[in-house]
Amino acid sequence: MPTPARSKTDSNSGNNKRMTTQPRQWGPSAPGKLFTRTVDWSLRLSTDSYHLRVGSTALQGNVAELERLRVSSGMFWATLALSLPGRGPISLDGIPNADAKEMATVVAQAVRKARVAELLRNFNQALRPVLQWASSARGACKAQLTARGWLTREFKEVQSNLKPGQLAELLTEPDVVRHLNAQRPELKDAVALWRRNFNEVADDINERHLTRELQESKAFFEQVEKSDRTRSALTAPPALIAPPSRRFFWESTSLGTADGK
Question: DSSP for 93-158?
Answer without folding.
Answer: EEEEHHHHHHHHHHHHHHHHHHHHHHHHHTHHHHHHHHHHHHHHHHHHHHHHHHHHSS--HHHHHH
